[in-house]
Amino acid sequence: MLDYERDLWSNGFRAVAGIDEVGRGCLFGDVVAAAVVLPEGIEIEGIDDSKKLSEKKREELYGIISDCALGIGIGRVDAATVDSINIKQAARLAMKQALAKLSETVTPDYLLVDAEKVDSPIRQLAVIHGDALSQSIAAASIMAKVTRDRLCLQWDLDFPEYGLASHKGYATKTHREAILKYGACPLHRRTFLSGILNEQLELF
Questions:
Q1: Residue 109 in marked binding region
Q2: Which residues, 6 or more positions from 29, have their beta carbon under 8 angstroms from its beta carbon?
Q3: Which of 13, 46, 130, 169 could form an S-S bond across to 28 if both were Cys, CB 3.0 to 4.6 Å?
């Protein structure tokens, strides 16, 4: 998980930022990105792609990363913007926001990005499956995932009929059935619903 970072450190890059996003495939809510710079040489036990970790383990690692990171930035792009500019551009915008927030604390000199390109003059590398290959990207994946999951718990209080606390906005059978029964709410991504819902569904 440190091969990419070690190579960059050995070439004089000191502040290597990992960047990743979550929520790209959700029907509901924000796409969330994180940018994380960890101290040179640190190795965090148990860190991995957030999708492979239990909720309990993600929460544990979230605390560890928060305590040891040199800087963390979070970016959020809401459902209306996703519909307006498309999900790929929204994910890139969230990453750009996360990098801008990170840069308030520490200015990275290299970016490791999970299979994407960030709008930045900073040198960067898009790493396919980066959240499983780079500790920095995995750390960003965990920070973004926990942040978004916590948002889902808040949204669940506002829209309890959809069961967001359990499925986190993904297109599960329960979620699809709830949309058919209750209609879409203002935080649903309208452009994501056409293949699921009938034409008579009223969108608010």
A1: no
A2: 23, 78, 79, 148, 151, 152, 155, 164, 169, 187
A3: 169
